[in-house]
Design a protein that fits this description.
The chain has about 350 residues and is an alpha/beta fold. It contains 18 helices and nine strands. The structure holds NADPH dihydro-nicotinamide-adenine-dinucleotide phosphate, the ligand CC[C@](O)(C(C)=O)C(=O)O and magnesium ion (MG) (2 copies). One magnesium ion (MG) binds next to helix 10.
């Protein structure tokens, strides 16, 4: 369906499940996205084989979930569709192992365009190369599916060797639950660049810095860490929930007019033109490949910056305060109550 913005959004009715029902899908990796795609595909009646290295700690989990497990090479050899759901940095070496197993007319399927867009994987011309990228962490892709709900996703076709790539990708999207919510068509380039920018500047990098700096400002001024935690982190979810449901308008309608006035006047003072320029710089480094080169080199040299930054982030005071408070309060579910307040390392 094409709406007034000329965006094509596909729903269940647009997908033809027969496009995938006779296929065997190899899901390489059983992490955040892999476990969700594999189980959703299997529950939708698709023949799934999970590809994991012999030493993989995920093998037991996949088997416990009732799935067949083989090595990536064996799985790819049996499959018509190979869904590459190991970490982006690992994909080129896993691909090198499975490339010879790809037959003419097979499909190479991704959930993010990094390795295709930045030329780290160059598939043969006679296979379809598609992407179904859920716009969500993998655990919610599974949870939503089980609850009968959907997860919005993006569809892109990089290479259509069979003439049927888009139809099969739509059937894959339906089988993992994305067309229940809506699937938007895009390109590998657009998905890769917007996804990297979004997670760096707003969703993961931007929000954690905003929370930490807000928390530190209050604590440094003598307020209690508990107050600072509630104000800057806990309530963030509740405010974002309102925006998720009804946009900024619904959030502004729900908060006090004092909050509205203060937010509308102080927000642009804090997220100022300097921040906009920083965001533009971040986007440029994504677009010109500088970030991709940096991340590839970081992995080739043992991730020194990653380890140091993650260690500092997960051991920030706000993490201890939050773990203690989530233990104490009634809204916390059992999973949250189980969490440890011990210091963790960057490898956790
Ligand atoms: N995380 C998310 O929610 C999202 C991810 N994506 C994309 O999905 C793809 C998968 O990401 P994500 O789910 O986060 O990945 P994960 O980090 O969760 O993948 C972990 C899985 O990959 C396996 N693995 C790790 N290293 C290797 C290796 N060297 N060889 C073979 N298998 C290995 C692990 O098994 P083992 O036990 O062997 O280590 C494990 O099963 C990426 O392209 C990502 O950008 C897209 C949207 C959201
Ligand atoms: C926001 C991070 C993400 O892009 C995602 C869950 O969509 C990722 O790469 O994990
Ligand atoms: Mg991403
Ligand atoms: Mg994303």
């Amino acid at each position: 369906m094409t709406d007034e913005f000329n965006t094509t959004v596909y729903y269940d009715d647009d997908a033809d499940s027969t496009e995938i029902e006779d296929a065997t899908v190899a899901v390489l990796g059983y992490g955040s996205q892999g476990h969700a795609h594999a189980q959703n595909l299997a529950d939708s009646g698709v023949d799934v084989i999970v590809g994991l290295r012999e030493s993989s700690s995920s093998r037991d989990a996949a088997r416990a979930d009732g799935l067949r497990v083989a090595t990536p090479t064996e799985a790819a050899s049996e499959a018509d569709v190979v869904s590459v759901l190991v970490p982006d940095t690992v994909q080129p070496s896993v691909y090198a192992d499975i490339e010879s197993e790809l037959e003419s007319g097979d499909t190479l399927q991704f959930a993010h365009g990094f390795n295709i867009h930045y030329g780290q994987i160059e598939p043969p011309e006679d296979v379809d190369v598609t992407m179904i990228a859920p716009k969500s962490p993998g655990h919610l892709v599974r949870r939503n599916y089980e609850n009968g709900e959907g997860t919005p996703g993006l569809l892109a076709v990089y290479q259509d060797a069979t003439g049927d790539a888009k139809e099969q990708a739509l059937a894959y999207a339906e089988a993992i639950g994305c067309t229940r919510a809506g699937v938007v068509e895009t390109t590998f380039r657009e998905e890769t660049e917007t996804d990297l920018f979004g997670e760096q500047a707003v969703l993961c990098g931007g929000i954690t810095e905003l929370i930490k700096v807000g928390y530190e400002t209050l604590v440094d001024a003598g307020y209690s860490p508990e107050m600072a935690y509630f104000e800057c982190l806990n309530e963030m979810k509740l405010i974002v929930d309102l925006m998720y449901e009804g946009g900024m308008r619904e959030m502004w309608d729900s908060v006090s007019d004092t909050a509205e006035y203060g937010g509308l006047t102080q927000g642009p003072e804090i997220i100022d033109e300097g921040v906009r320029e920083n965001m533009e710089q971040t986007l440029e480094e994504v677009q010109n490949g500088e970030f991709a080169r940096e991340w590839i080199t970081e992995n080739q040299t043992g991730r020194p910056v990653y380890r140091q930054r993650k260690q500092a982030d997960v051991n920030h005071d706000i993490e201890d305060v939050g773990a203690r408070l989530r233990d104490l309060f009634a809204w916390a579910d059992d999973e949250q109550n189980d969490e440890s307040t011990e210091k963790v390392t960057a490898d956790d």
